[in-house]
Design brief:
Length: 230
């Protein structure tokens, strides 16, 4: 049984997909325009404290939540931190872990590879940026009866959602930085997350400061990252 807009597949409703069809030239222009925009994205560590409305953050997270996920389980939670006291606690805990990493955990090769980026254990942006988005992955879910249910391809799914989120942040005219202090379990404690959530990524979001500089780095050429099999 079906209508023009829906059918049943194994008893589940499927709706008609409507694609916006472009000419080949329009696709070329659209893809080039998007590349020219997203290629200007940079990881920024110098933030302004200039405020902006939470509804912009909500739109960014709605975009991230539209990402594909294993069995459509959507195994993520996006925690938005605006509270100054909580941001301060996160900064203090992150810097403690980062100091250990720079002094004990990272080997000489790793430290040498980071030198051209100008990074260190100090993370003032965690307090300066108007918002922090802490992304948690969910390896499993609880149903209403408290039973556990597995999620699938969790890291891949949450990684895709974070990619959508970073692109959306840039598209909105804001900047971010993928911050991954390791280990990140302190985020679960500070934000009082349930036992089925694990910290995945920390993203400060805001405007770049007027004196922001970024490393002069280049991406690999296309022929280094793409192989065509004809």
């Amino acid at each position: 049984m079906h209508t023009d807009d829906s059918i049943l597949v194994d008893g589940f409703k499927h709706i008609k997909y409507h694609q916006h069809n472009f000419s080949e030239n329009e696709m070329r222009v659209n893809s080039e325009t998007y590349f020219n925009n997203i290629s200007q994205r940079r990881s920024v560590r110098n933030f302004s404290n200039k405020a902006f409305s939470i509804d912009i953050i909500e739109n960014l997270i709605k975009t991230a939540s539209s990402a594909p996920s294993g069995a459509n389980k959507q195994p993520w939670t996006f925690c938005v931190v605006k509270n100054a006291k909580i941001k301060k606690r996160i900064r203090e805990a992150a810097e403690e872990e980062e100091r250990k990493s720079y002094s004990e955990r990272m080997n000489d090769e790793w430290l040498n590879d980071l030198k051209h980026l100008g990074t260190d254990a100090n993370k003032p942006f965690l307090e300066i940026a108007p918002y922090l988005i802490v992304v948690f992955k969910k390896p499993f879910e609880y149903d209403k009866q408290g039973n556990k249910h597995q999620n699938y391809y969790v890291n891949e799914s949450v990684g895709l959602a974070c990619g959508f989120l970073i692109s959306a942040i840039h598209n909105a005219g804001l900047v971010t930085l993928t911050h991954t202090p390791s280990p990140m379990r302190f985020l679960e404690k500070i934000l009082n997350r349930p036992d089925n959530e694990r910290a995945f990524l920390l993203l400060p979001v805001g405007y770049a400061s007027e004196d922001a500089y970024v490393p002069d780095i280049q991406k690999k050429n296309l022929n280094e990252v793409m192989k065509i099999y004809e």
